[in-house]
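Blinded run. Sample ID left blank on purpose so nobody reads anything into the name before looking at the predicted structure. Input follows.
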Amino acid sequence: MSTADVIFTGGPIVTVDPTCTGASAVAVAGGRIAAVGGVEVLALRGPDTEMIDLDGRCLLPGFVEAHTHPTQDQLMYADGVIDIRPVTTCPTADQAHAEIVRAAATAPAGQPLIFYGLDVLLQTGFPEPTRAWLDELGPARPVVIWQNSGHLAWANTAALRCADLADDSPDPLGGSFEHDRHGRLTGKVFEAPGVLALVGPIIADQLTGPDLLAHQHADLAARGVTLCSDMAFAEEMRPLAAALYQQGRAKVRMRVYEMSNAAGQSYCPLDNGDDMFRQIGVKVWLDGSPWIGNIDTSFPYLDTPATAALGLEHGHRGHANYTEDQLHSIVRAYYPLGWQVACHVHGDLGVDMILDVYEKALTVYPRPDHRLRLEHCGAMTAAQFRRAARLGVTCSLFVDHLYYWGDVLVDDLFGPDLGAHWVRAKSALDAGLRISFHNDSPVTEEEPLRNMAAAVTRRSRSGRVLAPEERITVDQAIRAQTIDAAYQLFADDSTGSLTPGKYADLVVLDRDPHAVEPDMLADIGVHATYLAGVPTFHV
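Blinded prediction complete.
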């Protein structure tokens, strides 16, 4: 065997490979893991081998983000896009309001403004934006406030005009434009197809090269991520992504999913890309966000001041964005061709619907390794996880909801039983599923270690523990951010564990996740990240 390019020693090593436990050294050659083991690995040391002393730090496979939106998240670096998220810059309504007014008063003339992240459940007391108020803020410029979930936005007249949206514009499939009683657009736009129809034309001028996406890749690498998805990849983004990789500026592997469209046709051939960038699937949004009242549930929202602030009536229940026949048509258009389908769904009725659709598709078009996906799965029950497992469906869970919105789920939206049992990670594992955790960024920032903490502790920001029987172990949480997330992205054969032959996609943490109290997992720092053995981030 040839000598290694790099050998890591001197700290705990978590391989996430049951055949390579107890390792004290990892050798890398040609961008791949050459050996994992003990002192015998040191035999691969040559005159040019770089010896990296972990100095007590912990080496793991690079984190895998199975559900995120980097081509949307890149907009946070664009001129005129202002971050007002409650989990980052504006914890209160007063802070968000002040930032909106400040930017509207100081931005260059004609500069469109998109304020991302309003959430009245966390920024309590913020009045619902109106078209008239936004017109006052920007009579001659497009102004949009984008709700933190991404499923709702409010626009002024100039923004509607820029997006070529008129009172008689048809609703896009899976989205809608609100009208007043006179048939006039209110500026309120629902669900991803509607929101993207509004925002896309406004921001298009800034998306002419890969610079913003390069910023986003650097942020992912700084958080230990080596592989991510893009769950709403638009064809317009393909040249930008191609330029990023061709210029050698990419720091993360990507597996992308285009949005399903009314024509039921993909923009991309099934055989495409390489191990750095590949389109593997199609995304559909069965329902919306719990934070705006649009998830397809068998149970109602509570009647509370918070739900009143959302504009929800007594006994409100959300609904699906599609009929079951429409959903059948979407899955039939893509799945038989070989595409993986990923379905956003929170509500339990929505889960039943998509599992029915998947089961029918699998009966007519059986495929041994389909890895059909469910995304978020907030109100999914233990019985539904067991059914998903029987069908070979895999689930990606938004566990960060428990930390940021745990108190809201219990006190304001669904009560102590349904709210506390949001995102039943242990039930999913007990059913035999391979699960991943995600941040759905920009909804929450990329923070795989906080995801792990949320799943292990189920503790909200106030310290409340939600359904402790649904807590999982640290090892299970690590798998959900590495090998099992890679499995969902059809990449577990090449990354996701420290296994000889796989790419040397690595993260070095300041501390071993097994050696800290579970509540401290989120405080562990990322010291370095490597993609195919090449450093992409280092403190």
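Unblinding after everyone has recorded impressions. The chain has a mean pLDDT of 97.
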